[in-house]
Design goal:
The protein is an alpha+beta fold. It has one domain. Helix content is 16%, strand content 47%. It has a 4-stranded antiparallel β-sheet, with no helix packed on it. Strand 1 and strand 2 form a beta hairpin. It is elongated and about 35 Å long. 0% of the residues are buried. The mean pLDDT is 85.
Length: 57
């Protein structure tokens, strides 16, 4: 698993979590957002649907 943390332009902190598949491909499984000293909240996402839209299938 890989965790990527960054500070967004909107002032919130973000965490993206990826699994690395056996073929070396990173697959995003979760996104979290935190504002200030608040708790991490999982963002709603559907990577399969987003991939279909991008590929035009």
């Amino acid at each position: 698993m890989k965790h990527i943390y960054f500070h967004g332009n909107d002032g919130a902190d973000y965490c993206l979590i990826f699994f690395t598949l056996t073929n070396g491909t990173d697959f995003e499984i979760a996104q979290f957002r935190k504002v200030g000293k608040g708790k991490w909240k999982q963002e709603k996402m559907n990577p399969e649907e987003d991939s279909i839209k991008e590929s035009g299938i």
